[in-house]
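Figure 3 (text version): structure tokens given as input.
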């Protein structure tokens, strides 16, 4: 729970590293990764769909899944948790925001530098030659779109006619080298680590908090359920990010207590 030690740590923090997962976007209406297989997708294995092999095996199924998710992201808005993180960037000397999420809610909440370990659902490229693909701009609001049926034929590259694939990092693919370097550097240099809304099951992303903790850096976990990190986190704040983060920010930087320091 939130206590004076945690409040003091946050208030005096010089470099906060934040790692977020799908849970931070849950209150915005974006299903978490493992829940993403609701509705149309409950009978498929996420790790199979989120892989090059899965895409080559059934391009229309995988492209349809990503278009279903992308349409959903376009209709959602940042929630209070995203907004507090953007606020922390203004409040503290240095904040490094690292996300596993492929949505852009951190950016839309005002965070200026977001390290996307697993790419973006708003980017796509040719599977063969890597040429970038620009999604058609919606003439009207995306919600006038009816979610794509279960399967959707991906477009073809204008240069080589290869299949267009989502610009995310699939299972079995390496993370962007530069992004990983900056994320690892932040985990090694920060004096406080905050881990929000991730099951900490996917690697190497899940190594980042462990890297910080292994150096003796205190770690705050925000999650309604226990995860692999619960045993080693310094502070476990059990609950929804959209509720906990505003409360934590208020106690650290707004309340009378906060004003005294
Ligand atoms: C790679 C993009 C090697 C696509 C994703 C050890 C080291 C390295 C690799 C491995 C390893 N062991 C195994 C591997 C392989 C694999 C892996 O980790 N497998 C797992 C399943 C064991 N890793 C890889 O393949 C990685 N690549 O290692 O490459 C390599 C090296 C050189 C050359 C070639 C290859 C690539 C992994 C990236 C996969 N892509 N996403 C897409 O989105 O479709 S992963 C995807 O799942 C997400 O991006 C996310 O990162 C990940 C986990 O999801 P979470 O974000 O944690 O979400 P989840 O649903 O699991 O949990 C949500 C949490 O939120 C829950 O805890 C819940 O309680 C909480 N929550 C819910 N509501 C709220 C909340 N919290 C707060 N508030 C709320 N309201
Ligand atoms: Zn191409």
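Below: residues designed for each position.
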């Amino acid at each position: 729970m939130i206590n004076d030690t945690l409040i003091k740590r946050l208030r005096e923090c010089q470099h906060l590293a934040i790692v977020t997962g799908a849970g931070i976007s849950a209150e915005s209406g974006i299903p978490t990764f493992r829940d993403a297989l609701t509705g149309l997708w409950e009978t498929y294995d996420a790790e199979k769909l989120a892989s090059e092999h899965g895409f080559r095996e059934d391009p229309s199924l995988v492209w349809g899944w990503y278009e279903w998710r992308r349409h959903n992201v376009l209709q959602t808005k940042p929630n209070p948790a995203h907004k507090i993180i953007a606020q922390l960037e203004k409040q503290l000397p240095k904040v490094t925001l690292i996300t596993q999420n492929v949505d852009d809610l951190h950016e839309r909440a005002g965070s200026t530098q977001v390290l996307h370990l697993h790419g973006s659902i708003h980017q796509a490229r040719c599977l063969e030659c890597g040429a970038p693909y620009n999604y058609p701009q919606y003439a009207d609001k995306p919600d006038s779109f009816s979610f794509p049926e279960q399967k959707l034929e991906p477009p073809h590259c204008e240069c080589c006619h290869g299949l267009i694939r989502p610009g995310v990092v699939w299972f079995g693919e390496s993370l962007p080298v530069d992004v990983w370097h900056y994320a690892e550097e932040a985990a090694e240099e920060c004096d406080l680590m905050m881990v929000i809304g991730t099951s900490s099951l996917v690697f190497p992303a899940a190594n980042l908090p462990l890297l910080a903790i292994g150096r003796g850096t205190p770690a705050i976990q925000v999650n309604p359920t226990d995860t692999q990190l619960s045993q080693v986190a310094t502070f476990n704040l059990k609950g929804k990010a959209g509720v906990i983060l505003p409360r934590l920010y208020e106690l650290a930087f707004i309340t009378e207590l906060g004003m005294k320091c």
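The beta strands are 15-20, 94-99, 114-116, 119-126, 132-133, 164-168, 192-196, 219-222, 235-237.
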